[in-house]
Amino acid sequence: MSDPNCIVFMVDDDPLVRDSVADLLDSAGLAARTFGSATEFVQSQRPDLPACLILDVELPDLSGLDLQAELAKSGIEMPIIFLTGHGDIPMSVRAMKAGAVEFLTKPFRKQDLLDAVQEALRRDSEGRKQRSETLEFRERLRTLTPREHQVLALVVTGLLNKQIAGELGTSELTIKVHRGRVMRKMGAGSLADLVRMAEKLKISA
Amino acid sequence: LSQPSNPQPDVPLETSIPEGAASLESILCTEELGRRPGRAPDYEKENRALVTLAGAMVDANTNILQTFADTILEATQCDSAGLSLLTKDGGKRFYWPAIAGEWKPHAGGGTPRNFGPCGDVLDRDCTLLFKHFEKRYPYLLPVSPAAEECLLVPFYVGGKAVGTIWAIMHTDRRKFDAEDERLMNALGQFASLAYQTVESVADLKIQVAAREKAEAALLERATGLEAKIRCLVDANVMGIFTWNFEGRIVEVNETFLNMVQFGRDDIASAGMRWTDLTPAEWRARDELAVADLGATGIAQPYEKEFFRKDGSRVPVLVGAALFEKGGTEGVAFVLDVSEQKRAEETLRRVERQARSIVDSALDAVVVMDSDGIITDWNKQAEEIFGWTRAEALGRRMSETIIPAQYRPSHEKGLRHFLKTGEGPVLNRRIEITALRRDGTEFPIELTITPLKSGDAWTFSSFVRDISERRRAEEKLRESELNLRNTQAELAHMARVMTMGELTASIAHEVNQPLAAIVASGDSCAAWLASDPPNLDKARAAASRMIQAATQASEIVQRLRALYKKTTSVTASVDMNAVIEDTISLMHHETQRNNILLRTELAPSVPSVAGDRVQLQQVILNLAMNGIESVAGLDHEPKRLMIRSTLSNSAELLVSVEDTGQGIDAEHADRLFAPFFTTKPQGIGMGLPICRSIIEAHGGRLWAAKNEPRGAVFHFILPIKTPTE
After folding, report:
1. How far apart are the CA of B708 and the nearest CA of chain A, in angstroms?
2. Within 10 A of A61 (CB to CB), how many other CB atoms are there?
3. Using CA atoms, how far apart are residues A81 and A54, in angstroms rounded to an integer?
4. What span, in angstroms and rounded, lies between the C-alpha atoms of B301 and B63?
5. How far apart are CA A144 and CA A181, in angstroms?
């Protein structure tokens, strides 16, 4: 019944809450794995599937917010849904700023949680897709010569070939040839495509 | 007839013949009288003797019976002669009222009636001649000289035998003959007459003897009295002088001289009069005494004064008597009563002092006798009860100051004490209700002291009106109650404020199970709605719901106790459980602040007596202070430790240690002062309330430095002993 193509993780020190939430997800057809502490979660082997994390703000070892920071630092980009027994505004602002999908106060409504989980999983799938696309772009970028790299950086700033030639001290024709190679190597169908890629790869002049 | 009061020692009272005694026949030889050669009767001599005897009978001064014995001796020419008379105690014995001749010293002796020669004579009712009768009657052996022959003749009065007359020969110098028998028989008839005469004069003699005896006693007493008085005079135990109505002192003793410090010569030579020795103001009293003397012969002792030689006065007690009624001379007895006077004066002074003490006493003093009658009543009693002393004296105490409803038990208690000597309310301070004259009742403190004087008891009561004190006590109780209420209010307020600081933790604690319930409820519904329904999972979810709901209700209960405004309830409290319960509420608080809270609780701690909520409040407060002091730290470790230790068998020590910034030296002495706080939101009531709670539980609360850093708060509580 559960979707084998995604998984929900949960960290809460209260076994009753843990079991109840896991069961609720199970009944909604979602696979869930629970942990009693942040450390347990960090040290666990996780399948490479679209996933999200339901995290209790108040944990015995490391607080939920600290774990969030910790995960970001180590490059684990997993959407987080926070649960709290007693949420206050500063706490939720901090969590949301750090990229939390949702900040739910216990006891929560089933639909709120499921919506948040769906959204998180969607985001993760999206994220994962984006992350693999960026990886592809980065591979393509690696095939460019330094001159082509220079031309790409200037093209995405919106400069005309003539302006670029002036900037680099060469002819307009030379630039046109380089630009054509860049477009081909990067697999960009249009300038707009190229600009999007450059943004992803955080390329600037 | 006078009889010996005691039988003579040589006259035993055997009534039976001892074994081996000679037979009666062997000692009798009466028939020999006729065979012996008889002498010629001497009628002249016989007549003379009888005349003498008759004369003796009419002369009351002569001892008739002795004359009779003498006559027998004379007439028969024997060695001993006498009479035996039956005693008047029923005739058990014979006694010998008169004996002449050699046996005279045995007068007063006698023989048994049933076992002796006289008895034999009366039994045979005839004259008998005995020979050595001691052979049969051994008790006669010591009566010496022994009787060779004894002639015994019975005599009668009114036909009844009353005795015998007898004649004895101690040697065989002469033997009795028929003439002797005739003489003795004639004398026997005379004896009857003599006996009657003696009987008739006996009464008279008794009267005479009694009078003589009385006279003799009187005489003896008079002589004795004189000697005694003389003795008294000379013994100098009291002053004595003899005097006459002219006022002259006739004779004085040393004591009197010493008393008035005159020499004997002063009085004798100067012809001093007792009136000269008497101060003028006592003359009238003297005249009264003289009048008494004239009338009755006696002047009852009275007090007066005499002058001493140096003009000072000596107080004396004087009594006097005339030597003869109607006479003019007498004796006076004088006692120096200076000592008594001084003692009396002292006593009076002490009494006056006692009186003034009693009157100036703060307490009312009421004295009652054993009949329940008031015998003393001081000024304070007048003020307190409204009766004057004059009014109160003589009244029944119970009717005067005891409210009617208590009177029966008072009377009963008094009777019980007089009977048994037991009085549970005596000699100690009791508080009871008393009655004023106007009928109002008021509280008093009372001490009753019983005192025995002679056979009678008096009861001194010290009474204090304690209406004021009662009112003050009432007020104190009220203000104490108010204070307690205020304290309770404050404690509650502080508790609620502390709980406010815990809101986040509490919300978490409550929401945690609620979340589980809601989530499990949702999944339960989902499992039931699935096709086919997953009942196992639905059941598991429902069971989780129940578990979580139970958890939630426990938490709510714990919280409710803390929020509730309760009056203090004392119960048996397990401090370890209180600590565990309290930190369960703070669990979240410590997590949020990343604080390590640990406990080290002594195993099997005995209970303390106390109010669970209040004790929980103390733990909560101290722990929250600790959390606060470490929460702000930006360095590790942030630790809080709660310990319980049995410091000794009577005390439980609880410590709350933190690793915070500790207590500033400048704050140390104000730490427990009300309204002292270092927190921006604090009201400064937490620690003072904690301390008052612990002290109300009989314990102590104090702060100290924790090593190596931070503060530690200790408190001790007395352990509840099993008997409490």
Report:
1. 25
2. 14
3. 5
4. 53
5. 8
Residue B82: predicted pLDDT: 92
Q: For the ranges B279-283, B375-379, B678-682, which has the lowest average pLDDT?
A: B678-682
How far is the C-alpha of B140 from the C-alpha of B200, rounded, in Å? 32
**pLDDT given for residue B390 in this prediction:** 92
Two tokens at B573? 């409290």
pLDDT of residue B203: 61
Does B128 score more than 50 pLDDT? Answer: yes
Which are the contacts of B279, defined by CB distance < 8 A and separation ≥ 6?
B305, B306, B307, B313
Q: Is B374 helix (H, G, I), strand (E, B) or coil?
A: strand
CA distances from B698 to A134, B437, B610, B651, B689 (A): 74, 47, 9, 10, 14
Check residue A45 and report its DSSP letter: -
pLDDT of residue B579: 92
Taking residue B106's Cβ as centre, other Cβ atoms within 10 Å add up to 18
Burial B112-145 (b: 16+ CB within 10 A, else e): bbbbbbbbbbbeeeebbbbbbbbbbbebbeebee
- What's the token pair of residue B404? 């009617």
Which run of H or E residues covers position B475? helix B467-501
- Is B551 an interface residue toward A (CB < 8 Å)? yes
List the single residue in A27, A105, A110 with the smallest CB-CB distance to B527.
A27
Q: What is the predicted ipTM?
A: 0.74
B555-566 residues labelled b (16+ CB within 10 A) or e (exposed): beebbeebeeee
Q: What is the pLDDT of residues B91-101, one digit of tens each?
A: 788 888 889 99
Q: Which residues of B touch A24 (CB under 8 A)?
A: 519-520, 522-523, 526
Q: How far is CA A159 from CA A146, A155, A200, B199, B221, in A?
A: 18, 6, 19, 196, 178
Per the prediction, chain B carries an average pLDDT of 82
Q: How far is A61 from chain B (nearest CA, A)?
A: 8
Q: Tell me the angle at which helices B64-76 and B43-58 cross, rounded to the nearest 10 degrees.
A: 170
Given CB atoms, is A85 within the 8 Å cutoff of chain B?
Answer: yes
- DSSP-assigned letter for residue A205: -
Residue of B nearest to A111 (CA): B522
Residues of B (283-302) whose Cβ lies below 8 Å from A: none
Hey, which residues does B456 pair with through a beta bridge? B453
Contact: B511, A85; criterion CB under 8 Å? yes
Which has the closest alpha carbon to B636: B582, B594, B578, B603? B594
- Cβ–Cβ under 8 Å, residues B408 and B427: no
Q: How many CA atoms lie within 13 A of B251 on its CB side?
A: 9
Contact call for residues A76 and A20 (beta carbons, < 8 A): no
In this structure, what DSSP letter does residue B483 have? H
Q: Note the pLDDT tens digit of each residue in B285-308.
A: 888 888 888 888 888 888 888 888
Confidence of residue B523 (pLDDT cuts 50, 70, 90): very high
Highest mean pLDDT among B327-331, B470-474, B545-549, B600-604: B545-549
How are beta strands B364-369 and B329-336 bridged, if at all?
unpaired
Summarised one tens digit per residue, pLDDT across range B215-255 is 777 777 667 666 766 777 777 777 888 888 777 888 888 88
End-to-end, the C-alpha distance of chain B in Å comes to 95
Whether A119 and chain B come into contact, CB under 8 Å, resolves to: no
- Output the pLDDT for position A1: 41
Give how far Cα B511 sits from Cα of A9, A85, B32, B497, B505, Å: 21, 5, 160, 21, 10
What are the φ and ψ backbone dihedral angles of A168, each rounded to 5 degrees? -95, -10
Distance, CA of A66 to CA of A68 (rounded, Å): 5
C-alpha dist (Å) from residue A135 to A49, A77, A141, A200, A204: 17, 15, 10, 10, 18
Burial class (CB in 10 A: 0-12, 13-18, 19+), B479: exposed
What stretch of H or E contains B385? helix B379-385
